[in-house]
């Protein structure tokens, strides 16, 4: 090591028997450096946590280890031999397997095909029957008998798909298993199942790299950990040698950066959106009311109907309700065109695919909802609306070379600001936000919080789904938690704490039922208990986060 | 394990980052790019085919000096503008991330319908009726694609087949020989512009190009078409009427193909059931060479004219060198490959 | 929602049968459409089931079916082949011209090699060049078509009666040889697609290329091989066509571009890749290929075949979409 980077400065040299040594990993995408010199090692039989906020570079590091991404520079040594980079196959052959965050399962293949096809040569015979038998055996060995090996993966629930992905990574008895946010869709019993498998593997001498930002899970499973921030190593820790506060400030940088604005005082109590018994795909009767100038948070674990709720309210997916009003006017069926006309705005989940036309300019992306066929468009329209566009770009501090720059060349945070900005100062009554702060840097987050609060001050009702519990707890007037497509709890005032949000998110309204146990392989009779999900690890994660928060 | 329990972030920062921007996102400026390539990147795509045409024109001059003449230029440009008119509709379809493979038989259908209807409706009435027929064909394409969700390729192939049947069943070819005067007047008649004699179709095609480019670049409808082509889901979630934009896009595409049919009848003064067949691949070729992205969201009618000029100049050179139509096709293929390997990759 | 909630259903026997696969691959509608069509055909023209007519019909349908299978393989990996007609023309004339001087096996090998080379050319540019299949094959359509006319500029070649009999005659009474060849090729293709890992990879690449790559498989090579395989299948279709017409023709492949895409669409294949069935494609090709015949025997102007084919495609592919929409409206969102 000649040129010492900040992270590496504090890294102790790897022991000679380390299973994995990653040195000075760098990955740049064009001008953006996702990972800027990360060095760490992993010993045999240990669970190494890789923690950091969204966008800190954890996933990129995991993908480099798995061979899915070629490092720009740096070296990876597994068991004394350098890992052939950029080939998942080579990584697998050297005993490194990864369960990916974006599931690497082929939706049109059956479970059995997904489990067996990745191994072996392409010109080898393939028997469905043998594959099914083998898959069945494997799933039973891993206590997952409820998954049908003949079902197409695309038809499984998100949680089941994640279990299959993990089972596939485990199947080869890897020397090094990488779990990249592998618990993101799992329920608490699912997480316990995962930890049991991890302990089995480490007992046999295998190592696990556990990528996560759930501190509760890390406290339970990790022997050691490396903290990443902005693509660099921010520090390291060992089991029981850390507190949530320390880890959080290490992940976030300075304490001051975790500042949340307070929700503004409400000027009127008019209702701008009310819906009773809203039903749609994945929504089983949701009722809620949103007032003018109110920031209403939506909480819950991934896949419990939050995305569906926003899409249904905006008319992006068909939905019906007993009664449904926007700005006092009744709504029957709706679609995005009508919703925009009624004064709704929507910031969708995937900014690159659903939010922006990446080839078009910054200004035209802001104007996209406001194009009428018979009006001017393009540059003449941009100069007509220059005042509004410049106002938005300044208010959100969008870092761009101007309204004519291609939006695809902006960074993620600035792109997100465009998707949000197009609804600002346009007479909106309700704005629906789908996790707008995910994967953007701290500064962009602050600027978005400010803009959200500013909109609320103007009397706009804001419905805000976030995966970050702290945001909801601090910036919202009120939080509604969804569980299995229904409202599990509504939290306001002193009840609005991170613990309560997380408790409700795992379906444990009114106190946590810690008594529920049972392995995932529980017989059918036990289904009644398993559905009453207890919260242990998952609940512990964000709640412990809060204890270190600003409150 | 002998690792220190906690190495604080502050200590790490104190070690000093030599190149520490506030956040990684700020790093996205054009620092890495040379000024030359950034200038090149700013040149509108439509310019490249026009430059390529000029280069080919110069090459022609090197081979046969007498090729560099106004007459030769007008000859090539006339051939190219007819191909371009036939490809304008295709351009509109490709911009919205579709494709219109029913162009050939829309051309044939409108041409034959026009000639058939000149008797009962008069030239003006027949002209309008043929254009309306083209718009109707486009409407059906667009409605099936937008509302039923069939892929554009399959829908327009089916439409092409259906139109072929209709052409064979509905028209009596032996009677369709007389081309009305006013169509000749706007196509093959020689007119004088700025002291140059040229077929009327050339200024007509250029005027159409200007109008279409203005519509595509400077109207809400035109820009919406680009948003839909660039990212359909984005357009939908921004509240744009995506289905309506798609359908009107295909209607314009059909209308332009129908117009091309009438122009072709006027210029060549003959019509047959298969008169459009050669435009199936040639129209897509002109659009692609003109710099449009086959994935949608990118393209211009000026570029399409440039693409048609390149293809036209190639055919002039091939004719001069006496290489035969076969080699011309081969060169077309190589040009398309060159163009797409230059900028045909899917955006990252 | 629970990760571990036991599945209510017991062992699903129907899952083991091929029916589910056919349904998933969209083959049910084209199979039904063919059944209806076939019954109508036999009612209107019972003499289809005579030896001569069966043979004629088979010779008409088999080249289309083979080319449609080639198009299917490319559609399975998420591509489309605009050059398929040109490849067919080229393989057709190579076969016919080589027969003039070379022994039959050499001519066959050269023709298959031509198809393979054309397919690999496209495949290399698409898989390793990262270029869009539609644009690459548009360009190569010009190139291959021009090459075909360089090889032979007018119909001709040395196809002999023996070759006609070997490919398009009768094996046994009521068993046209061409159908036997089609069956052999279809079974081999089925074995390749369903019973080898490569075949499943082809389906996987079309279903989700990124997932296949993340699983450590060579997605690019799979794509390349799919294009090569399609080239070989196209050359089979070209040779069947040259044999049954006893001539090589540099434009013989042109009509097969649109009809092969139409057949694959009618077969219910998904054009983004990953789904499509062999039997559905063959039956769709039979339906489309025989419509003209049927109209002829029904005493209708056979130009109607173009209109009817188009309507059948839109109906068979579009009706399920309409059905789903209507069902959703009727059912409401009660579940």
Can you describe this structure?
- The complex is a heterotrimer of chains A (551), B (348) and C (335).
- The two termini of chain A are 42 Å apart.
- Chain A is of the alpha/beta class.
- Helix content of chain A is 34%, strand content 22%.
- Chain A has 21 helices and 20 strands.
- The longest helix of chain A is centred in the middle third of the chain and has 16 residues, at 188-203.
- In chain A, helix 6 packs parallel to helix 7 (188-203).
- Chain A has 3 domains: 6-253, Rossmann fold; 254-343 and 427-511, P-loop containing nucleotide triphosphate hydrolases (Rossmann fold, 3-Layer(aba) Sandwich); 355-426, no CATH class.
- In chain A, the strands form 4 sheets. Chain A has a 6-stranded mixed beta sheet with strand order 6-7-8-3-9-10, with helices on both faces. A 6-stranded mixed beta sheet of chain A has the order 16-17-18-13-19-20, with helices on both faces. A 4-stranded antiparallel beta sheet of chain A has the order 2-1-4-5, covered by helices on one side.
- With 348 residues, chain B is an all-alpha fold.
- Chain B has one domain (45-343): ABC transporter involved in vitamin B12 uptake, BtuC.
- Chain B contains 14 helices and 2 strands.
- Chain B has helices spanning 9-14, 35-42, 47-63, 70-95, 103-148, 152-170, 181-186, 201-218, 220-230, 232-237, 242-268, 279-289, 301-320, 325-343, and strands at 190-193, 196-199.
- Chain B has a two-stranded antiparallel ribbon with strand order 1-2.
- Chain C is mainly α.
- Chain C has one domain (28-316): ABC transporter involved in vitamin B12 uptake, BtuC (Orthogonal Bundle).
- In chain C, 74% of the residues lie in helices and 1% in strands.
- Chain C contains 15 helices and 2 strands.
- Chain C starts with 12 loop residues before the first helix and ends with a helix.
- Chains A and B meet through helix 1, strand 2, strand 9, strand 10 and helix 9 of A and helix 1, helix 9, helix 10 and helix 11 of B.
């Amino acid at each position: 090591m000649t040129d010492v980077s900040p992270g590496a400065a504090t890294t102790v040299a790897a022991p000679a028997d380390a299973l994995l040594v990653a040195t000075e990993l760098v990955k740049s995408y064009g001008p953006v450096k996702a990972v800027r010199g990360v060095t760490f090692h992993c010993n045999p039989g240990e669970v190494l946590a890789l923690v950091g906020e969204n966008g800190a570079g954890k996933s990129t590091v995991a993908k480099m280890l798995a061979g899915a991404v070629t490092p720009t520079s740096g070296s990876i040594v597994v068991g004394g031999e350098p890992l052939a980079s950029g080939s998942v196959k080579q990584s697998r052959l050297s005993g490194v397997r990864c369960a990916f965050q974006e599931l690497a399962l082929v939706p049109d293949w059956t479970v059995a095909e997904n489990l067996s096809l990745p191994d072996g040569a392409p010109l080898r015979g393939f028997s469905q029957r043998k594959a099914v038998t083998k898959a069945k055996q494997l799933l039973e060995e891993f206590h997952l008998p409820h998954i049908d090996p003949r079902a197409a993966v695309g038809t499984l629930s998100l949680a089941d798909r994640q279990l299959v992905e993990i089972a596939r990574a485990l199947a080869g008895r890897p020397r090094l298993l990488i779990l990249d946010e592998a618990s993101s869709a799992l329920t608490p019993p699912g997480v316990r199942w995962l930890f049991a498998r991890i302990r089995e593997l480490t007992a046999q001498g295998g190592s696990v790299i556990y990528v996560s930002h759930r501190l509760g899970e890390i406290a339970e499973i990790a022997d050691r950990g490396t903290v990443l921030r902005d693509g660099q190593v921010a520090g390291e820790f060992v089991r029981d040698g850390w507190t949530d506060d320390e880890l959080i400030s290490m992940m976030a940088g300075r304490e001051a950066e975790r500042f949340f604005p307070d929700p503004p005082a409400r000027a009127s109590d008019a209702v701008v959106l009310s819906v009773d018994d809203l039903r749609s795909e994945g929504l089983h009767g949701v009722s809620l009311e949103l007032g003018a100038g109110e920031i209403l948070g939506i909480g819950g674990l991934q896949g419990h109907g939050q995305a569906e709720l926003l899409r249904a309210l905006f008319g992006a997916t068909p939905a019906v309700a007993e009664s449904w009003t926007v700005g006092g006017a009744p709504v029957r069926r709706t679609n995005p065109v009508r919703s925009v006309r009624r004064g709704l705005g929507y910031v969708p989940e995937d900014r690159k695919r659903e939010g922006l036309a990446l080839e078009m300019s910054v200004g035209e992306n802001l104007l996209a909802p406001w194009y009428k066929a018979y009006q001017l468009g393009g540059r003449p329209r941009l100069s007509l609306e220059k005042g509004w566009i410049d106002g938005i770009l300044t208010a959100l501090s969008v870092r761009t070379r101007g309204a004519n720059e291609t939006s695809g060349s902006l960074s993620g945070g600035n792109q997100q600001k465009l998707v949000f900005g197009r609804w600002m100062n346009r007479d909106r009554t309700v704005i629906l936000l789908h996790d707008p702060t995910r994967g953007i840097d701290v500064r962009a987050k602050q600027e978005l919080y400010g803009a959200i609060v500013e909109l609320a001050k103007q009397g706009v009702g804001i419905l805000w789904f976030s995966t970050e519990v702290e945001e909801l707890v601090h910036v919202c007037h009120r939080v509604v938690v969804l569980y299995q497509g229904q409202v599990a709890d509504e939290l306001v005032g002193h009840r609005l704490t991170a613990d309560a949000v997380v408790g409700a998110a795992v379906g444990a309204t009114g106190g946590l039922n810690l008594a529920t146990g049972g392995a995932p392989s529980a017989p059918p009779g036990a289904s009644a208990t398993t559905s009453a999900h207890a919260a242990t690890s998952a609940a512990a994660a964000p709640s412990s986060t809060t204890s270190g928060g600003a409150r | 394990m002998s690792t220190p329990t906690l190495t604080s972030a502050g200590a790490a920062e104190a070690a000093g980052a030599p190149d520490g921007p506030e956040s990684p996102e700020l790093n996205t400026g054009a620092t890495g790019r040379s000024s030359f390539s950034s200038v090149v990147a700013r040149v509108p795509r439509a310019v490249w085919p026009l430059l390529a045409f000029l280069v080919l024109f110069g090459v022609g001059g090197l081979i046969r000096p007498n090729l560099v003449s106004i007459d030769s230029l007008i000859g090539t440009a006339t051939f190219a503008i007819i191909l371009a008119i036939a490809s304008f509709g295709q351009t509109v379809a490709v911009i919205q991330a579709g494709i219109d493979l029913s162009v050939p038989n829309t051309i044939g259908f409108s041409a034959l319908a026009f000639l058939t209807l000149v008797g009962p409706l008069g030239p003006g009435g027949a002209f309008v009726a043929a254009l309306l027929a083209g718009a109707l064909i486009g409407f059906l394409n667009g409605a099936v694609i937008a509302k039923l969700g069939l892929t554009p390729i399959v829908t327009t192939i089916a439409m092409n087949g259906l139109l072929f049947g209709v052409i064979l069943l509905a028209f009596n070819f032996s009677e369709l020989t007389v081309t009305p005067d006013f169509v000749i007047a706007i196509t093959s008649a020689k007119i004088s512009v700025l002291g140059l004699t040229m077929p009327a179709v050339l200024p007509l095609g250029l005027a159409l190009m200007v109008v279409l480019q203005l519509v595509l670049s400077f109207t809400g409808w035109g820009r919406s078409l680009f948003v839909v082509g660039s990212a359909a889901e984005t357009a939908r979630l921004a509240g744009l009427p995506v289905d309506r934009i798609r359908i009107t896009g295909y209607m314009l595409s059909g209308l332009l193909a129908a117009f091309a049919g009438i122009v072709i009848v006027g210029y060549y003064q003959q019509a047959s059931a298969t008169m459009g067949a050669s435009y199936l691949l040639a129209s897509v070729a002109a659009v692609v060479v003109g710099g449009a992205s086959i994935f949608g969201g990118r393209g211009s009618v000026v570029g399409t004219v440039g693409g048609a000029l390149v293809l036209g100049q190639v055919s002039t050179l091939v004719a001069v060198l006496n290489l035969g139509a076969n080699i011309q096709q081969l060169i077309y293929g190589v040009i398309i490959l060159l163009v797409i390997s230059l900028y045909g990759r899917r955006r990252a | 929602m629970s990760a571990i909630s036991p599945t209510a259903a017991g062992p699903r026997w129907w899952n083991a049968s091929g029916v589910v696969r056919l349904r998933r691959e969209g083959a049910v509608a084209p199979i039904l459409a063919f059944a209806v069509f076939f019954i109508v055909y036999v009612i209107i023209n019972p003499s289809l089931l005579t030896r001569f007519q069966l043979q004629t019909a088979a010779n008409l349908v088999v080249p289309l079916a083979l080319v449609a299978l080639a198009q299917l393989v490319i559609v399975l990996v998420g591509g489309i082949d605009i050059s398929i007609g040109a490849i067919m023309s080229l393989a057709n004339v190579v076969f016919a011209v080589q027969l003039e001087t070379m022994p039959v096996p050499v001519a066959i090998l050269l023709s298959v090699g031509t198809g393979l080379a054309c397919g690999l050319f496209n495949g290399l540019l698409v898989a390793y060049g990262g270029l869009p299949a539609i644009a690459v094959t548009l360009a190569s359509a010009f190139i291959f078509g021009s090459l075909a006319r360089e090889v032979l500029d007018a119909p001709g070649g040395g196809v002999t009666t023996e070759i006609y009999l070997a490919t398009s005659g009768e094996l046994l009474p009521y068993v046209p040889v061409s159908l036997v060849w089609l069956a052999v090729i279809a079974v081999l293709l089925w074995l390749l697609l369903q019973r080898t890992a490569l075949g499943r990879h082809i389906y996987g690449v079309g279903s989700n290329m990124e997932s296949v790559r993340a699983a450590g498989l060579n997605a690019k090579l799979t794509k390349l091989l799919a294009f090569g395989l399609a080239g070989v299948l196209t050359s089979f279709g070209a040779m069947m066509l040259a044999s049954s017409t006893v001539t090589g023709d540099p434009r013989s492949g042109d009509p097969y571009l649109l009809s092969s895409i139409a057949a694959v669409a009618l077969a219910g294949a998904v054009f983004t890749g990953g789904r499509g069935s062999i039997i559905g494609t063959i039956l769709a090709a039979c339906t489309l290929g025989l419509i003209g015949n049927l109209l002829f025997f029904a005493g209708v102007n056979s130009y109607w075949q173009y209109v009817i084919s188009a309507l059948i495609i839109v109906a068979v592919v579009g009706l399920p979409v309409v059905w789903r929409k209507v069902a959703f409206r009727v059912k409401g969102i009660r579940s």
